TrEMBL record:
Cited Pfam families: BPD_transp_1
Example GO biological process: transmembrane transport
Gene3D superfamilies, per the entry: MetI-like (1.10.3720.10)
Membrane-related topology note: Multi-pass membrane protein
Signal peptide (UniProt feature, chain positions): none
Residue span(s) of domain ABC transmembrane type-1: 68-261, 352-552
TM stretches of this protein: 15-45, 65-94, 106-127, 142-161, 195-222, 242-262, 294-317, 358-377, 389-414, 434-452, 481-499, 531-552
Protein name: ABC transporter permease
Protein location: Cell inner membrane; Cell membrane
Similarity field: Belongs to the binding-protein-dependent transport system permease family.
Organism, scientific name: Promicromonospora citrea
Keywords linked to the UniProt accession: Cell inner membrane, Cell membrane, Membrane, Transmembrane, Transmembrane helix, Transport
Organism superkingdom: Bacteria
Main location: membrane
Length: 564
């Protein structure tokens, strides 16, 4: 053991870092890699012997390639439109100041963490024949799905690009303008090239989210439109066709691995760009004499009002419409019941309490695991081998973003039917929060990691030279800086856990159903009262999620630079 200047024994650094690596790897191995691998293996070893005939069978189906084509098409369209609409919002919210800017920033962030079931119900209500936009004929259409995906992901572009845009030195643009360049040419030749790393990073993440969208496609796609993700769910739950589900999971994993590699490369370029630019530049007041400001303001009103507010406002308004066509609170009063013809086992309020309790446990788990991952990956080892190992660890913990939550949930049922470390997770109530934590960990990492990477390594070196042990360096240098992003990371983790549906739909017992599961069950049951309850329950879940994110945004330290 080493001793510091006061003669106190301190733990050697290798043991600390070994523990910091072992805990997240153990969590990932037991609760992600094992369930996914077990499901894939079971699909290829149906009778105890290896059988690869499933590949030929699945890949020879025209339906498979149609689903792959639809998946890639919706992901590409969702990415393109998210970037096109996100850029003017990023300019408005990060380069200009105006009353209520913080509130609008929080409002733009809310859709990203809204439960997929809520968004699906909101747009279904909007596009229905009697809905506000029913005349557009977007019900059960690819265009309707893409609009909903843009609703989800435009905030990713706004936050990722805005974080770099607010640090760009405006004098470069001013110099180009003084040399006679028009505002459009300045944007094209100066601003956009400088923003390219952030745009590429945002686009790769949005493509990943669009390609793995589940709840939105399940609710809005109907029988005409499906994706690889929904087909995995259908093959697993309705046909028990594990072989086909395994092949589709591998296809999806190949696409997601490529997207993750592109995302990691783009993220490194963005972080390098952030290190090269100056500190945050004070935003200028919005000027109505500037054509660019006027265009951005008008575009922001249209995007926020038409894309983000209208669907949610329509959902809220429709939730007050009673089955007989009158207006009232009947749908909300019915939340204390089990629905028409006992459609549910528990009431919506009981499901809400269950969701909050589970989300709290999942948030704690994801903060611990994600915080350790961010701490380890934020280091910059001197040896090339250690740097590669850190990069591999970073990539491994991004995999849950791309692998189907349905695959994870069904894998849990297969592998965790026996006690783990003496604990029966199925009866302890930990199965669902653990699954939700697996989904939330990557978001925690992406929120905390950029903040830790921004720490000047010389601060740690100075503290070590002055006699501080590894534990004290972490406590006095890293922890205070990391705490700047903990509020936002907590909000993301809690909101994502509240709305998680894919894995939870497999794991939640009828008497312990969460709010998203209850909403989906109500939507799928006949009866106007059940559908009205689904609308009211969706509003409740949306308000909970929005409140969490608005509070997290208010607690967010402006110096924190998380990716989302």
């Amino acid at each position: 053991m080493d001793r510091d200047r006061r003669g106190l024994t301190r733990t050697p650094a290798p043991y600390l870092w070994a523990a910091a690596v072992a805990v997240p790897l153990g969590f990932l191995g037991v609760f992600f890699a094992w369930p996914v691998a077990a499901l894939v293996v079971r699909g290829f070893v149906p009778d105890g012997a290896l059988d690869l005939g499933g590949f030929t069978e699945v890949l020879s189906r025209p339906r498979t390639w149609r689903l792959v084509g639809l998946t890639l098409t919706q992901a590409a369209l969702g990415t393109v439109f998210s970037v096109l609409l996100g850029l003017p919002l990023a300019y408005l919210l990060y380069r200009r100041s105006f009353p209520g800017r913080t509130l609008v920033r929080g409002l733009v962030t809310v859709p990203f963490v809204l439960p997929a079931v809520v968004v699906g119900v909101a747009f279904r209500t909007l596009f229905a024949p009697g809905g506000t936009l029913g005349f557009l004929g977007l019900e059960e259409s690819l265009a309707g799905i893409v609009v909903a995906l843009v609703f989800f992901n435009v905030s990713v572009v706004v936050r990722t690009v805005g974080g770099l845009w607010e640090r760009l030195d405006p004098r470069t643009e001013q110099a180009a303008a003084s040399l006679g360049a028009s505002p459009a040419r300045v944007l094209r030749t100066v601003t956009l090239p400088a923003l390219a790393p952030a745009v590429a990073s945002a686009a790769s993440v949005v493509f990943l989210f669009c390609a793995t969208a589940f709840g939105v496609v399940l609710v809005l796609g109907g029988v005409r439109y499906g994706t690889v993700e929904t087909e995995i769910w259908t093959r697993t739950t309705q046909f028990l066709d594990l072989r086909s589900a395994s092949v589709l999971s591998i296809l999806q994993l190949v696409v997601i691995t490529a997207a993750l590699a592109a995302s990691a490369r783009a993220r490194r370029r963005r972080e390098a760009a952030l290190r090269l630019v100056s500190a945050r530049v004070a935003a200028r007041s919005l000027s109505w004499r500037s054509p660019a400001d006027v265009a951005a303001a008008l575009g922001g009103v249209v995007i926020v009002g038409g894309l983000l507010v209208l669907p949610l406002a329509g959902l809220v308004a429709r939730s007050f419409r009673e089955p007989d066509g009158s207006w009232g609170l009947a749908n909300y009063v019915a939340l204390g019941t089990t629905g028409e013809r006992n459609a549910l086992v528990v009431t919506v309020w009981e499901a809400t309490a269950t969701s909050l309790r589970i989300a709290l446990v999942a948030t704690v788990l994801s903060l611990v695991v994600g915080g350790l991952v961010a701490l380890v990956v934020s280091r910059r080892p001197r040896s090339s081998g250690a740097r590669r190992a850190v990069g591999v660890l970073d990539g491994l913990f991004m995999l849950p973003l791309g692998v189907s939550a349905v695959t994870v949930g069904f894998g849990f049922l297969i592998t965790l039917d026996q006690p783990v470390l003496g604990v029966d997770l199925r009866t302890s109530g930990l199965l669902v929060p653990v699954a939700q934590a697996v989904v939330a960990v990557p978001l925690v990492v992406r929120t905390v990691l950029p903040v830790l990477r921004a720490v000047d390594p010389r601060l740690r070196e100075v503290a070590a030279v002055l006699g501080s042990g590894p534990g004290r360096v972490l406590r006095t240098v890293d922890l205070p800086i990391a705490l700047r992003s903990v509020g936002l990371a907590t909000g993301f983790a809690f909101a994502v856990s509240l709305g998680e549906f894919g894995a939870t739909s497999f794991l939640a017992r009828p008497d312990g159903a969460t709010l998203p599961v209850v909403i989906y069950r109500l939507v799928g049951r006949p009866g106007a009262e059940n559908y009205g309850m689904a609308l009211a329950a969706s509003v409740v879940l949306a308000v909970l999620t929005a409140t969490v994110m608005m509070v997290a945004e208010r607690l967010r330290d402006e110096r924190a630079g998380g990716e989302f």
